[in-house]
Amino acid sequence: MHAQLAVTSLITLDLLFFSHAWSHEVMVTPKKLDPDINGRQYYTEGQVKDRGAIFQISAFHQDFYLNLSPDSQFIAPAFSMHFPGVDPKPSPNLRHCFYSGDVNSDRDSFAALSLCGGLRGAFGYQGVEYFISPLKNGTWGQLAVGQQGPHLLQRRRAMSRSADATSRCGVSSGLNHGIMEALQRYKSSKRGKRHNNGTRRGGHRSRRFASITRYVETLIVADETMLKFHGDDLQHYLLTLMATAARLYRHPSIKNPINIAVVKFMVLMDDGKGPKITTNAAMTLRSFCAWQKKWNKVSDKHPEYWDTAILFTKTDLCGASTCDTLGMADVGTMCDPKRSCSVIEDDGLPSAFTTAHELGHVFNMPHDNVKACEEVFGKLKENHMMSPTLIQIDRAKPWSGCSAAIVTDFLDRGHGECLLDEPAKPITLPDELPGVRYSLGRQCELAFGLGSKPCPYMQYCTKLWCTGRARGQLVCQTRHFPWADGTSCGEGRFCLNGECVEKHNTNRYKVDGSWGKWSPYGQCSRTCGGGVQLAKRECNNPEPTNGGAFCEGLRVKYRSCSLNPCPDTGKGFREEQCESFNGYNQSTNRLTSTVGWVPKYSGVSPRDKCKLICRANGTGYFYVLAPKVIDGTPCAPDSTSICVQGKCIKAGCDGQLGSKKKFDKCRVCGGDNKSCKKVSGLFTKPMHGYNFVVTVPAGASNLDVRQRGYKGLINDDNYLAVKNSQGRYLLNGNYIVSAVERDISIRGSLLKYSGTGTAVEALQAINVIQEPLTIEVLCVGKMTPPRLRYTFYIPREKKDNSAGQIISNSLAALPPPRPRPQSQWTPGNWGECSVTCGNGQQTRNVECRDPWEHLATDCPASLRPPALRTCGDPCPMWEAGEWTSCSKTCGRGFKRRQLRCSAGGGVTLPREHCKLKRKPQELDFCVLRPC
């Protein structure tokens, strides 16, 4: 079950004195200079060429020469802007807009601008930062390429620090079971957990432990509120947000090469054809997820197929108890076409962090403050991407160790397979930092509306404080997000990660990561029976910086060790692991403190074969007692593959990883079946009661017994039964049969039984059986003839060449069938139970009869079936589920919970079977807060 987690925006209003403007402004007309011939004006050249450009700007008693080169990576070639219900129109080719470079050839300077519609962005020279944007009729606007027009050039000047606001977060940090398991797997791998000791060479590789580039093909959707607010700048604005999010996912602290690729951009109009967008964040998310699924392509190979979808809206989103929610997404839904989606409330440029945060949830990341993260990594700082408050993100390490461990486990376990295909035509995202294009003043307008301006006396780069009005007074307000990266903060400096740092040309000096040395192999996970040793390496030689590529290739390698056989204890290795939890009752009243645990094999999906799933012996209850078994544990009783770090890896019958050796029919590793003898038979003539079929000797393997129902019927009153060498029934004895599938452990071997609820009742054992078993068929009722066939394999007897005598292969040969007894006990049908539910008794007649159905007296008294037994199903009782969220975020609403009438064991009965007088309350009123 996936939790819905929302990112809360904390808003604080502090009354401050507001003084004069914080920057000098002048009107300028930029000139474009040919790289070879000076003096040509910018607007006479037409469209900017990709080979680069030089611009001259004269202002503040000096000349600025901006040397620019194309700088764009993140927009897909097939990117298109689409209005649902309207014919698609060609999108402006924004990938040609974004440029970066230097000023006056000063290596400490920087420039990052968009050249579409005039110059828009920022540049810095000799410690002073400048913002330029086109003017239209004296207001913010855009110029068409080739159109003359003035620009506004702003020069920043220093400010002083303002008071900090208190940080609060009311979001509950939910966890799903997969996150808990991922952290436990990480914790045990760091501990070097093992079962005893040993060493041995051998190697194997798997892409599951490899660092592989992932491409998150993304759909961006904007609703009409976004179009009304941003106008023609909408597409460029959202691509700027995605560029920032993409940079965050390329940071080495996430420990994986993840690329965000925008493949489609859609704008919703208020025509009823889009998703239902309301203040209810959860309902909006549900509606958007269903809507985007209908629009997505069927095949992942299609160039416009997306792996995840993001909706941007200016609507004020509300969670269960507050309207401070800035975003919402389901946890761990990446590659799920129905649920891989998120909704973002646009809050200005900091929405880029909200976007990255919600994508983190889709990648299965919880909030950093959850207890499970703290148990493994200690108390984490509140400046990482998955912090609930998103304040002052540490751009030197934006992702916490917890987030990196969980996304690595998520991808290693095969949940990111849809991300392996490289997008055919990704949309190029802007390369410049957002603070370059959007001035501090524009950041205030994007966050708090037109007319909002930066407050004075702010501390550089920390929280963005902007002007506003409350109760008719001028106030300063903040959403606790830092200034946008790239915003100038003094001479030769700009903001990065909420700090004012020396300027670097991050695009020019990218450093790709390279793998460090392999660590030595760790200790063996077992001392016998085939263990595993691990070696790891990190992408730190060097670590990628300034957007450089993360390492690709294996990050973990492993080899086999301790292949010597274990002493025969009569128990399998997985069985021993389950038994280690004996007495642990999962803190539930369903189980006692003396509970014993046995492995559960049947009904376990292939993806979960390396989890320690155990069943409480004698019950139907089963639990995941550990997120992974000890390395070297066989994935299944009938498989030679073994578990490594929670993943099933192929191995040979010799226990060696990478080996291709296989068992033959009589379980000889590397054998050719020449030493095997097949034994088969048929049984079709029954008598009432238990009928002897065959004794399977110790040493037999590949046992397959099938009893086909008469005329295909499921309930033909014929049932398989099994006794051990001591005459004790292991299956369907004492006239009590199992309707469901069962696993029966016998001295390390496993019998898999299908249950009686199938037309073909089956009993199978692949491995060598360590003790003789007697197969019987129980025939009752109408005595329909069974059709029972059995096969198994035993080793052939070998002749001793020196003595010419037959010797045994140390395995028991097939004994002659025992004679059928002259007389046997014949039980009658059980009578009715003395109670309709609860604890009652049943009785029946038990008679000794000879083969001719005459009463006899020579039946062994020790084998007499019981004539009395307890009975009674559990009495029906009401079971109540969890309450839903309140139907209203304020005022009086209602909440509801599911009720079901249960007979225990998960069986649901019609409601009329439970007493109405004892029915719990199903609907109740609730008030979260006054409106």
Automatic annotation (TrEMBL):
The active site is at residue 358. It is found in: Secreted, Extracellular space, Extracellular matrix. InterPro entries: ADAM_Cys-rich, ADAMTS/ADAMTS-like, ADAMTS_ADAMTS-like, ADAMTS_CR_2, ADAMTS_CR_3, ADAMTS_spacer1, MetalloPept_cat_dom_sf, Pept_M12B_ADAM-TS8. It holds the Pfam family ADAMTS_CR_3. Keywords: Calcium, Cleavage on pair of basic residues, Disulfide bond, Extracellular matrix, Glycoprotein, Hydrolase, Metal-binding, Metalloprotease, Protease, Repeat, Secreted, Signal, Zinc, Zymogen. Ca(2+) 1 binds at residues 217, 300, 307, 418, 421. PROSITE patterns: ADAM_MEPRO, TSP1. Binds 1 zinc ion per subunit. The keyword DNA repair does not apply. CDD domains: ZnMc_ADAMTS_like. Residues 214-423 form the Peptidase M12B domain. Residues 1-23 form the signal peptide. Its cofactor is Zn(2+). GO terms for biological process: extracellular matrix organization; proteolysis. One of its GO terms (molecular function) is zinc ion binding. Ca(2+) 2 binds at residues 217, 300, 421. Disulfide bonds join 289-341, 318-323, 335-418, 373-402, 444-466, 455-476, 461-495, 489-500, 524-561, 528-566, 539-551. The keyword Metal-binding applies. One of its GO terms (cellular component) is extracellular matrix. Gene3D superfamilies: 2.60.120.830, 3.40.1620.60, Collagenase (Catalytic Domain), Thrombospondin type-1 (TSP1) repeat. It comes from the Eukaryota. Zn(2+) binds at residues 169, 357, 361, 367. This is Peptidase M12B domain-containing protein. The lineage of its organism: Eukaryota, Metazoa, Chordata, Craniata, Vertebrata.
